[in-house]
Amino acid sequence: MKRRWGYLAALWAVVLVLVGALSQPARSQATAATLQTAGLKLEQVGSGVYALVAEKVDFPPADPKLAIANSGFIVGSDGVMVVDTFQSPELAELTLATVKTVTDKPVRYVLNTHYHSDHTGGNPAFRKLGIPILGRGLARDYVAGRRGPNARSGSNEPPDVLINSRTDLWLGDRAVRIEPVDGHAAGTDLVAYVPDAKVLFAADMVFNMRVPFAGEGDADLRQWQGSLYRLAVTFPDAKVVPGHGEVTDVSGIQAQQAFFDDLERLARRWKAQNLSKEQAIAQSSTIIEAYRTYKFQGLYTTALGAAYDQFTRSATIPLIP
Ligand SMILES: [Zn+2]
After folding, report:
1. Which of 28, 174, 181, 211 could link 227 by a cystine bridge, Cβ 3.0 to 4.6 Å?
2. In 3D, which of 170, 200, 169 has the Cα closest to residue 77?
3. What's the structural domain count of the chain?
4. For residue 46, what are the domain limits?
């Protein structure tokens, strides 16, 4: 048992070190990032609602200048909310510059949809401007590197406003509804919905056409499945901006549900065969056919490990609804 934990911990460490190593050089770069060098596409997803979609990146990123995750912003009558800050202050500056290309209104809030460094690494650019950073749960400790699964990747500016229950924030005459969801990042997950534009920033609840990151100590696949179900029934008509991948709709949420259902089927087979974790991962190391074209294939083993740990264990919960 100890050896299995050691194995996964080592994998997780490799992931963190890779992210850290690849994002460090970007911090020291003198030349300003552009949408092109960052591999980003600006997409208007509703009236005054924009997504910055990281369309070029794979994992691990081939070029440290490429944005790993998506970001976005919502323009209200008296101000702007930015959703996520990328992995570096340089990329966050790019977000601020991009906001200026579409509006003169000031950025009033920035939301950390969860604590992971590819979504929060740009926080210092907002702190510098005195813009409140919104987060949830233990995000302050995790982002600051004081404790938690992310502690080893170093300190960063943490959120200074915690949103732990459903909250409406107003940008003048426009509401943004911020809601806790669970399952991806150790109780720090939030989504943001713009009712008048029917746009849902689903953050890392949805990895569109990408293998989702299910980090040990972070991901709770049962909770993740529950949150996806809730999002799909609550926002059936929404445009969905995922944390990674192209803008989608409810079908992107359903595809994420299908991915976890497929892992659950695998786990049920492993359990029937009484496989060890190493045996299970070895047996299933070739990705399921339906996901062969997905990016982030390097995260598949971690997803299998989470499925083994969590789905084979919960014998009292019906496996597939
Ligand atoms: Zn994440």
Report:
1. 181
2. 170
3. 1
4. 2-253
Cα 34 to ligand 1 centre (Å): 23
**What average pLDDT does range 298-302 have in this prediction?**
96
pLDDT of residue 300: 97
Q: What is the distance in A from the centroid of ligand 1 to the CA of 273?
A: 32
User: What is the tens place of the pLDDT at every residue in 76-106?
Assistant: 999 999 999 999 999 999 999 999 999 999 9
Average pLDDT for the chain:
89
Distance CA 242, CA 227 (A): 14
Contact 296, 210 (CB under 8 A): yes
Distance 204 CA to ligand 1 centre (A): 5
Mean pLDDT of 218-222: 96
Q: Is pLDDT at 203 greater than 90 in this prediction?
A: yes
303 CA → ligand 1 middle, Å: 13
Token pair of 257, please? Answer: 């549900």
Residue 138 lies in a domain: yes
Please report whether residue 124 resides in a domain.
Answer: yes
- Asked if the structure places residue 286 within a domain, the reply is no
Q: How many angstroms is it from 157 CA to the middle of ligand 1?
A: 17
CA dist., res. 69 & res. 55, Å (int): 9
Cα–ligand 1 centroid distance for 319 (angstroms): 25
Q: Which two tokens stand for residue 277?
A: 């974790």
The CATH number given to whatever domain includes residue 210 is: 3.60.15.10
What number is the average pLDDT over the span 239-268?
98
Ligand 1 center–CA 174 separation, angstroms: 27
Residue with tokens 């000031």: 106
Residue 67 Cα to ligand 1 midpoint, Å, equals 13
